[in-house]
From TrEMBL:
<feature type="compositionally biased region" description="Polar residues">
    <location>
        <begin position="1"/>
        <end position="12"/>
    </location>
</feature>
<feature type="transmembrane region" description="Helical">
    <location>
        <begin position="183"/>
        <end position="203"/>
    </location>
</feature>
<feature type="compositionally biased region" description="Low complexity">
    <location>
        <begin position="25"/>
        <end position="34"/>
    </location>
</feature>
<feature type="transmembrane region" description="Helical">
    <location>
        <begin position="98"/>
        <end position="127"/>
    </location>
</feature>
<feature type="region of interest" description="Disordered">
    <location>
        <begin position="1"/>
        <end position="34"/>
    </location>
</feature>
<feature type="transmembrane region" description="Helical">
    <location>
        <begin position="269"/>
        <end position="287"/>
    </location>
</feature>
<dbReference type="Pfam" id="PF01594">
    <property type="entry name" value="AI-2E_transport"/>
</dbReference>
<feature type="region of interest" description="Disordered">
    <location>
        <begin position="406"/>
        <end position="442"/>
    </location>
</feature>
<feature type="transmembrane region" description="Helical">
    <location>
        <begin position="68"/>
        <end position="86"/>
    </location>
</feature>
<feature type="transmembrane region" description="Helical">
    <location>
        <begin position="337"/>
        <end position="364"/>
    </location>
</feature>
<feature type="transmembrane region" description="Helical">
    <location>
        <begin position="245"/>
        <end position="263"/>
    </location>
</feature>
<feature type="transmembrane region" description="Helical">
    <location>
        <begin position="294"/>
        <end position="317"/>
    </location>
</feature>
<feature type="transmembrane region" description="Helical">
    <location>
        <begin position="44"/>
        <end position="62"/>
    </location>
</feature>
<keyword id="KW-1133">Transmembrane helix</keyword>
<keyword id="KW-1003">Cell membrane</keyword>
<protein>
    <submittedName>
        <fullName>AI-2E family transporter</fullName>
    </submittedName>
</protein>
<keyword id="KW-0812">Transmembrane</keyword>
Length: 442
């Protein structure tokens, strides 16, 4: 029996002298104040911070060189476009660098000639518009007064424009934006020079670039890379061919309209509409149609309306009839795929993506098509769009059948009554048949 004190409680045994009782663990399994940090935790924290810093640095660097990467991509597709011409000249004994230089020189001469003709046309037209602005304004005012029954005068309009705050603010904003325009022009020239330089290197050193890529790949992969390169050259060339053909058709169509209306500089305007509408994606059509409308407006305001209507109608014809047919034949992709690729390219890279989307998708489709296993299609009517169900006859068909049945029954009854009883006559002529004797002929 355990000893108890006077209060009746059990006496607790005191620990021996000089010893410390063991401490009990805290509730919930919490570590005590003397617990150490795991050895892997500092390393994990340092590694996580290093990964975050590397990701931020890589993201910043990628955003800084995005413009350069886009320029290199444009230069690569431009080099693919001129690859057939350079290879043909190099196969005849000409050095590849010289052949590339001659191709670029031809493109530069054609571009400079077009810009010169266009600039001279614009300069002459601007001078003509400035000199004849009062007459143009009088003709417009007379047309507005005659059409809408108003009483406008040129003097009132000129005074209102000269004393308006809108004109003063516009002049101030234009003067302030001259530096921005100059900076954009210089940036565009630098970007054009960058694209031309990279495309020249890609075209001139094309074989060396292919050898450098194939040198780090096994032989099987080398064949695939070379085949993909050839496909890219064919598809890019086909795309540019289709664009050039559509530019030619568009230029001729607009030239005929402008010449019929008597608009000056019709040949140059036709070339302008054809090139700008085809090789500047998204907004090229609107830029191409604005200049002919402006020139036509100087001749007759109604001519500008005719030009606008023709541009809109021809654009719909080109989008839904001409472009799908040419693109599907030259680039060999479905019109819906071409349309979707342009939308996706515009969403990813803007105007540049819209320009290179179709040849890129065509190259990818042709390259992946070699690895897709195809099977023979069963001869099922449903494959060709024919449904297998049996259709019930129409109301008119059933009425004809019901109408023809009584007539057929009447004709059959008349034929039966008119036919003689041949069997009875034959039996009577034979006479009685003796038992055990078979009739004649059996």
């Amino acid at each position: 029996m355990a000893p108890t004190d006077e209060s009746g409680q059990t006496a607790q045994h005191a620990p021996p002298t000089g010893t410390t009782p063991p401490s009990r663990p805290q509730a919930g399994g919490a570590a005590g104040p003397g617990a150490r940090m795991p050895r892997w935790l500092p390393r994990a924290m340092v590694l996580a911070l290093a990964l975050i810093a590397a990701f931020q640095l890589g993201s910043w660097a990628f955003h800084q060189v995005t413009g350069l990467l886009i320029n290199i991509l444009i230069a690569f597709f431009l080099a693919l476009a001129i690859e057939p011409a350079v290879s043909r000249m190099a196969s005849r004994g000409m050095r590849r660098g010289l052949a590339t230089f001659l191709v670029f020189l031809g493109l530069a001469i054609a571009t400079a000639g077009f810009v010169t003709l266009l600039g001279s046309m614009l300069a002459g037209q601007i001078i003509k518009m400035v000199e004849g602005f009062p007459d143009y304004l009088d003709s417009v005012i007379n047309w507005v007064n005659a059409t809408f029954h108003t009483d406008l005068r040129r003097v009132d309009i000129q005074e209102g424009l000269l004393h308006s705050d809108w004109l003063r603010k516009y002049a101030q904003n234009s003067a302030a934006g001259v530096l921005d325009v100059s900076a954009q022009v210089l940036g565009g020239l630098f970007r054009l020079l960058t694209v031309a330089l990279f495309s020249f290197y890609f075209a001139a050193d094309g074989p060396r670039l292919r050898r450098a890529i194939c040198s780090v790949l096994p032989p099987a992969r080398q064949a695939e890379v070379l085949r993909a390169w050839e496909i890219a050259v064919d598809k890019t060339g086909g795309y540019l061919y289709s664009r050039g053909l559509m530019a030619l058709i568009s230029g001729i169509a607009h030239y005929i309209l402008l010449e019929a209306l008597g608009v000056p500089y019709a040949p140059v305007l036709g070339v302008w509409v054809g090139l700008v509408s085809q090789f500047i994606p998204t907004i090229g059509t609107y830029l191409a149609g604005a200049l002919p409308m402006l020139i036509a407006f100087t001749v007759n305001p109604w001519y500008a309306v005719w030009v606008l209507g023709f541009v809109v109608i021809y654009q719909q014809f080109e989008n839904y009839v001409l472009q799908p047919k040419l693109t599907s034949k030259t680039v060999d992709i479905h019109p819906a795929v071409a349309f979707g690729s342009v939308i996706a390219g515009t969403a990813l890279l803007g105007a540049v993506g819209a320009l290179i989307a179709i040849p890129a998708v065509a190259t990818l489709q042709a390259f992946l098509g070699a690895y897709v296993k195809r099977y023979a299609v069963t001869d099922d009517p449903r494959v060709h769009g024919h449904r297998g169900r049996v259709t019930a006859p129409g109301l008119l068909t059933r009425a004809r059948r019901l109408w023809s049945r009584p007539a057929e029954a009447g004709e059959a009854g008349t034929a039966d009554s008119a036919a003689p009883d041949v069997s009875g006559t034959a039996d009577a002529s034979r006479g009685p048949v003796v038992a055990g004797e078979s009739p004649a002929g059996e």
